[in-house]
Design goal:
This protein is an alpha/beta fold. It contains seven helices and eight strands, in the order ββαβαβαβααβαβαβ. It is about 35% helix and about 20% strand. Helix 1 packs parallel to helix 2 and helix 6 runs parallel beside helix 7.
């Protein structure tokens, strides 16, 4: 497992369930606030290498994303990750641009299969755009001769919990190396544990690791080995 220091660069702007809450405009933290946190994290990290993941908002909407990535590289981050819906990756030179800047991990946020994702986000065509974006990223990485890790991130609420196995299968078809299930605060995990188990099994069948956000490990019973984020181990806010 790799350890990433999580740096929050904003809030909102990523795919979310419109039935749980109304979508709001994203808020971005300015680089002048974020860069000191990057350097503090570099000084305090306890792993063999320093890795950074920018999260909390759609990375491509942040007006100072290039500066943030550059600052992480200058702080000796070996790996830099971003969180995105994936749609912007198919626009212009975005895919090649983030690779050139030093990004090597990309978390794709998804809520379900194509129909459910587009329905819950109230954004028709967004799933297909994300799929094309991830395809463009893989192509850009192959052309540049660099290795990337594309992860799936599924916020799980009561409106999509029964569809997370299908969501996992869709992300696997995009070429993700792992999927992270993130139960939302109002979800009764215990009552829906079989759906989590089905999602874990879906990943196993396809050779892709699926895990759930750290929680009461006893809730997961025989699935307890799947508790924990495969990259963001024990760090970052909830």
């Amino acid at each position: 497992m790799l350890r990433f220091e999580q740096i929050v660069i904003g809030d909102g702007g990523l795919p979310s369930c419109g039935r749980c809450a109304a979508h709001s405009d994203p808020i971005f933290r300015p680089a002048i606030e974020v860069i000191p946190e990057i350097h503090d994290a570099a000084l305090l990290h306890c792993g063999p290498v320093f890795n950074v993941s920018f999260l909390g908002t759609e990375a491509f909407l942040h007006p100072e994303l290039p500066l943030l990535v550059t600052s992480a590289i200058e702080a000796d981050a070996k790996r830099v990750g971003i969180m995105t819906s994936g749609q912007a990756l198919s626009h212009g030179d975005n895919a090649a641009g983030i690779l050139h800047a030093g990004v090597r991990h990309v978390d794709i946020v998804c809520l379900g299969d194509e129909a459910l994702h587009d329905g819950l986000t109230h954004a028709p065509g967004s799933y297909a755009a994300a799929r094309e974006g991830v395809k463009a990223l893989h192509a850009a990485a192959e052309k540049a001769g660099v290795h990337i890790a594309v992860m799936g991130h599924i916020p799980v609420c009561r409106h999509n919990v029964q569809a997370i196995p299908d969501a996992v299968a869709g992300l696997v078809s995009m070429g993700v190396v792992a999927v992270h299930l993130d139960p939302q605060e109002d979800l009764d995990v215990a009552r829906n544990i079989e759906w989590f188990g089905a999602a874990f099994q879906t990943g196993i069948m396809h050779g892709t690791w699926v895990c759930a956000e750290p929680a009461d490990i006893e809730l997961f019973g025989r699935w307890s080995l799947h508790v924990g984020d495969p990259c963001h181990v024990g760090v970052g806010p909830r």
